[in-house]
UniProtKB/TrEMBL annotation:
Domain OCT: 350-428
PROSITE patterns in UniProt: G_OBG (PS51710), GTP1_OBG (PS00905), OBG (PS51883), OCT (PS51881)
Compartments in which it is found: Cytoplasm
Gene: obg
UniProt-listed HAMAP family: GTPase_Obg
Domain Obg as annotated: residue spans: 1-158
Protein name, per record: GTPase Obg
InterPro entries per UniProt: G_OBG (IPR031167), GTP-bd (IPR006073), GTP-bd_Obg/CgtA (IPR014100), GTP-bd_prot_GTP1/OBG_C_sf (IPR036346), GTP1-OBG_CS (IPR006074), GTP1_OBG_dom (IPR006169), GTP1_OBG_dom_sf (IPR036726), OBG_GTPase (IPR045086)
Length: 429
């Protein structure tokens, strides 16, 4: 089965924690800090694989997690960085954030490799926190947390021309005649699930790629049948060919069919109606003469909209070449750049967020100490003499889990807490 949509979970690697240790050598009883830094976590990287043409593999494996970085070691040893995780996808895959549906990356054109989630930065060892007043820091920086997301992968066919129409109007026959594609052809009221692609080699032109978009039905934009699965493939096309049965073999109303499909295109994405359209009135081999009332009705209905109508026979080839040259001439007026989807969802770069360490320890009975760069930074912009500043200080202590750590160490009401020259009496709320 052709698979063109999948939901997966991706997670980068966590950064390794910085290490706390001190030099212990003969004749150096009180050596300085020598804790090494943690290793960086692995990235989640999407790469285009030209050999893939479906998202089928993602139906079976839905969780992708990169390797975490290792903790730093003593003697300034740096922790090993985690391995990046490479996820291979077909060209034309659009990666979207699941909840919002916003585009994270479009793996097409020149974009063949993209880092989607960055691994956490490794934490600094305690050697980095030695100062003149704090020569034996007992804390190190924790590694940055991993980034994680649920994403939707959508494969959107890359073709210059999209061929649309209700089932049994002759699209597969047309595609097999004008390209090297070999679609299955049968008189069914259902359709194959995969868009068929073929290259049109037209003398005197650079040629173009055409995709037979599986039969659309009314309600497709609302998800009826496999509507969404088919409609997304039209988004990259530059020209749309509507194929209708001009012979009225099944008694359908071709004008009504074209309007119905355009309505579905508009509901799915209004921008689709801005694409140039051509109408291929097929099966003229089944009528007498050059035209009939059906073809006349189609021309009359779309004349004021500037949409050309080409009577053709996909079976005999009559009128087909004229139609293809018209398509080619339209493509000549359109930018050669492939249609890509701009990034809409920007993942917060966790590596730029400073999350310095701290320690909470019991010095002796009824006396506790809190220290570390995070605490110093907080005190630097907090006026503890003001009521508002003191309330902020208390909230900071609670939100960062410091009060919980004090309670785990057994602090009781009336005990003293020392924080860089400040002393506080502890009372539980």
């Amino acid at each position: 089965m052709f698979a063109d949509r999948a939901k997966i979970f991706i997670k980068s690697g966590k950064g390794g924690d910085g290490h706390v240790s001190f030099r212990r050598e003969l004749f150096v009883p009180d050596g300085g800090p020598d804790g090494g830094d943690g290793g960086k976590g692995g990235d989640i990287i999407f790469v285009v694989d030209k050999g893939m043409n479906t998202l089928y593999n993602f139906r079976h494996v839905r969780k992708y997690v990169a390797e975490s970085g290792e903790e730093g070691g003593k003697k300034n040893q740096h922790g090993k960085s985690g391995e990046d995780l490479i996820i291979k996808v077909p060209e034309g895959t659009v990666i979207k954030e699941f909840e919002s549906g916003k585009v994270i990356a479009d793996m097409s054109g020149d974009n063949t490799r993209q880092v989607v989630l960055k691994g956490g930065r490794g934490g600094k060892g305690n050697q980095h926190y030695a100062t003149a007043t704090m020569q034996a820091p007992k804390y190190a920086q924790p590694g940055k947390e991993a980034q994680e997301l649920y994403v939707t992968l959508e494969l959107k066919v890359i073709a210059d021309v999209g061929l649309v129409g209700f089932p049994n109007v002759g699209k597969s026959t047309f595609l097999s005649r004008v390209t090297n594609a070999k679609p299955k052809i049968a008189n069914y009221h259902f359709t194959t699930l995969n868009p068929n692609l073929g290259v049109v080699d037209l003398e005197g032109t650079p040629g173009f790629v055409i995709a037979d978009i599986p039969g659309l039905i009314e309600g497709a934009a609302d998800g009826v049948g496999l509507g969404h699965d088919f409609l997304r493939h039209i988004e990259r096309t530059k020209v749309i060919i509507h194929m209708v049965d001009a012979a009225g073999v099944e008694g359908r109303d071709p004008v009504g069919d074209i309007n119905a499909i355009n309505k579905e295109l508009e509901k799915y994405n209004p921008n689709l109606l801005e694409k140039p359209q051509i109408i291929a009135a097929n099966k003229i081999d089944a009528i007498y003469g050059e035209t009939n009332e059906v073809i006349d009705k189609i021309k009359e209905a779309f004349a004021d909209k500037g949409i050309d109508v080409f009577p053709i026979s996909a079976v005999s080839g009559k009128g087909v070449k004229e139609l293809l040259y018209k398509v080619s001439s339209i493509l000549d007026t359109i930018d050669d750049e492939p249609i890509t989807f701009e990034q809409e969802y920007f993942i917060e770069d966790y590596n730029d967020i400073v999350d310095e360490p701290y320690t909470v320890e019991k010095v002796k009975d009824h006396l506790y100490s809190i220290e570390g760069p995070r605490i110093e930074r907080m005190l630097g912009y907090t006026n503890l003499d003001s009521e508002k500043g003191f309330v902020f200080f208390q909230r900071f202590m609670k939100q960062n889990g410091i009060l919980d750590e004090l309670e785990e160490l057994g602090i009781e009401d009336g005990d003293t807490v020392k924080i860089y020259g400040h002393e506080f009496d502890y009372y539980k709320e």
